[in-house]
Amino acid sequence: MTNLTGSRAWGILALRLITGWAFLFAGLQKVLAAEPFSAYGFLVFGTGGTAEGAVEGAIVNPTQAFWVGLANSPQLLEAINFIVPFGQIAIGVALILGLATRFAALMGFVMMAAFTIAAWDFAHGFVNLTALLGIVALILGVIRAGEIYGLDAILDEQPIVKQTPVLHHVLG
Q: Residue 28, Cβ neighbours under 10 Å: how many?
């Protein structure tokens, strides 16, 4: 358990809650929308990318064919349409509760890295919103933010966790 108190602990908690809310809200928007969520439009039309100095409408994303290929596979698209919103919800809830925080943070980073590569939106620099959210999620995992006012602090003290070292890589 991390013995962090005071304003640093509250700051880490606030960052974990805000980051969790960003993931949760994004997932809930997709699940609760009037129309069923589909990644097809983004994968086909939103993956051309942007780059400083590129001609408008030019495809600058070297991975675009991969994303379009995913969109054109009904089975893969169906999996993506499930994984994205429910993954966002699961990551958000886990971060908010401080439950399996390191795993949730890693999954948040992986998801945001995929979104960043797919969008290839670098016309205004390397760090965009998805990259920033992924980096923040990763940092929350590295600093074991779930041990600060989170359920991971309680779980860390359980005998099964103390006897199973691999669980320390998931919690925190």
A: 14
- Cross-strand pairs, 51: 122
Question: Can you tell me the distance from the alpha carbon of 103 to that of 19, in angstroms, rounded to the nearest whole number?
Answer: 14
Report how far residue 39's alpha carbon sits from residue 142's, in angstroms, rounded to the nearest whole number.
30
Quick: pLDDT tens for 26-53.
999 999 999 999 999 999 999 999 888 8
Helix (H) or strand (E) segment spanning residue 50? strand 50-51
Instruction: Return all residues near 133 (Cβ < 8 A) that are at least 6 apart.
Output: 19, 22, 23, 108, 112
pLDDT on residue 126: 83
pLDDT at residue number 3: 64
Count the alpha carbons within 13 Å of 110 in the hemisphere toward its beta carbon: 10
